[in-house]
Amino acid sequence: MPPTSLHIGQTTSPDREPGVDVPEFRRVFRRHPAGVVVVTVDAERGPAGFTATSLTSVSAEPPLVCFGISAGSSSWPHVRDAASVVVNFLGAHQEDVARRFATRGVDRFAAPTRWRRLAGGEPVLDGTAGWLRAEVEALVPVGDHHLVLVRVTATDLRDATPPLLYHDGRYHSLHGERR
């Protein structure tokens, strides 16, 4: 039987049971470990950013990555209007940064956040495990989120910094420490 194509925003196909339980869906992905990043952007209204665990490498040639962002996120209008973004890879020591950029209603760039601007004006966080600067290629509405496809134009990686991971509702390092 050939695969059934699923159009973006479609919730069921003839081969699937309708009505996936949303809390169960979320529980399944809480059990899937993911690296933690903060996406930062400035669409000429001041810096904005959010914590994400949805970063995915799409292609090496050309270098493309994507991430998801909720349509209801306060950062969405900034990402929607930006020409470029910075993906900041958080180190195991940066749980406080992950929590700050995941919190609504706070100035995420106020102290104690340490950051600077790249030559193109994009905000980049200091002390991270590394970062990617990327130009926005496509914004795709998908359910209650948008998929943001970006082309990587610059990278900076610090090999000695272990990454921050998210699994089962908690932050972790590769050494198994629960945070």
Automatic annotation (TrEMBL):
Region named Disordered: 1-20
Occurrences of domain Flavin reductase like (ranges): 29-173
Gene3D superfamilies in alphabetical order: Electron Transport, Fmn-binding Protein, Chain A
GO biological process: pyrimidine nucleobase catabolic process
Keyword Oxidoreductase: yes
Source domain of life: Bacteria
GO molecular function, one term: FMN binding
Protein name as catalogued: Flavin reductase (DIM6/NTAB) family NADH-FMN oxidoreductase RutF
Species in which this protein is naturally found: Saccharothrix saharensis
